[in-house]
Amino acid sequence: MTIKPLEKVKIVMLSMIVIMGLRTLAQNRGSSADPSLDAYIDALRADMRSDKIEVIKEAMQFSEKDAAAFWPIYKKYEAEQGKLNDERIQLIKRYSDKWSTLTDAEARTVALGALDLDSRQADLKKKYFAEFDRVLPGLVVAKFFQLEYRLDLLVDLEIASELPALLTRPPGMPNETIQVKPN
Asked: Which of 8, 104, 130, 168 is deepest in the core (most CB within 10 A)?
């Protein structure tokens, strides 16, 4: 029995839900630096990378020639992307640990860190788009980056849904929603 690409995406998303749920549970217990939790998150991330490879294989349906060109480059891309994701997880941990007492300076630091990571992620994708484009047909490269974009959106949506929002006041402050002014 083969698993369809959409089912693989669901598996990847379920893994993300578990990771973020465990992170939230750890924060509620006041133990966000729990090494066993971090080890479990690392194991789940490894499983997710494996699942993602299966999603890519099934969605892309590479010819033998294209697969031979794609996978060595993808391995380098994934390694560099993993480093950025490590930084992202650290940024998320810092934000999650401090969100209820976040100062203006800390909020700026977190926001600028997130923007910097977004910029470096875009630069990484541009770099690897060019590398893939040298050895693969344009349609194959575009299809891969469209798939990558969609998978990133799913992960980002799940992460955003699990993080405490600054649009609600942190505990200890008036419990009202901040009004966002239209431009």
From this structure: 8
